[in-house]
Write a structure and sequence with these properties.
Shape: elongated
Number of strands: 6
Number of helices: 6
Order of helices and strands: HHHEEEEEEHHH
Number of domains: 2
Structural class: alpha+beta
Low-confidence stretches: none
Length: 204
């Protein structure tokens, strides 16, 4: 319970998820473009599939297969092509809309003063890993790190619903990287260490 001296509250896991879009909307502005992308993707997929299907008997003829629209299998194939093309169009449009949303969000926070880059340090402490910059800090208690995940250019530390990135370029060399991971793996819970198989293998 909160007191007058120190505001305190219990935050449920995932509690922030429903309200994150509110902040994103402030950064991004109108998000109607997402629906436009989806509509264009579906319409484009349907149109391309319709053109392809209309040419299908001729294309089959070119490879030596005589077919007409009286053939049930040809109708079935055309329906499948239209479905696949529509779903593909939607997926491509959703991917494009997601990328634009991320770009607009970053533009919004930069316009409010977020610098292009922030230098973080990763300090091993007895009871936690301190991830700190001159703008924000995270103190990750060892028992709270659920898993260390390998990515192409980063190590990811999963702490409940928070994912912390550790760029591999942060280390002076590969041995420094291995040493850091060994220290982290020694301190996290055994179950978390078992889940972190890639990190364990790399650390040696």
């Amino acid at each position: 319970m909160a007191t007058s001296e120190t505001p305190t509250a219990e935050i449920r896991a995932g509690e922030a998820f429903p309200v994150l879009p509110i902040a994103q909307a402030r950064m991004v502005g109108s998000q109607a473009f997402i629906l436009v992308y989806q509509f264009v993707g579906i319409l484009g997929g349907m149109m391309l599939s319709a053109i392809f299907v209309s040419l299908l008997p001729w294309l089959l003829y070119l490879v030596g297969i005589n077919a007409d629209w009286g053939d049930q299998w040809l109708v079935s194939v055309s329906v499948l092509i239209q479905l696949l093309a529509t779903v593909t169009g939607f997926a491509l449009a959703w991917n494009a809309a997601t990328r634009r949303h991320a770009t607009k969000f970053l533009t919004g926070v930069k316009a409010r003063g977020t610098p292009e880059a922030v230098r973080f340090t990763y300090a091993i402490e007895p009871d936690a890993l301190l991830v700190a910059s001159d703008r924000i800090s995270h103190r990750l208690a060892w028992h709270a790190i659920l898993e260390v995940i390998q990515a192409p250019d980063h190590w990811l530390l999963q702490v409940d619903t928070l994912t912390i990135i550790v760029p591999r370029r942060a280390f002076a060399d590969e041995e420094a990287e291995r040493s850091f991971l060994r220290t982290v793996l020694e301190r996290i819970a055994p179950q978390a260490r078992e889940r972190s198989s890639e990190a364990t293998a790399f650390a040696g």
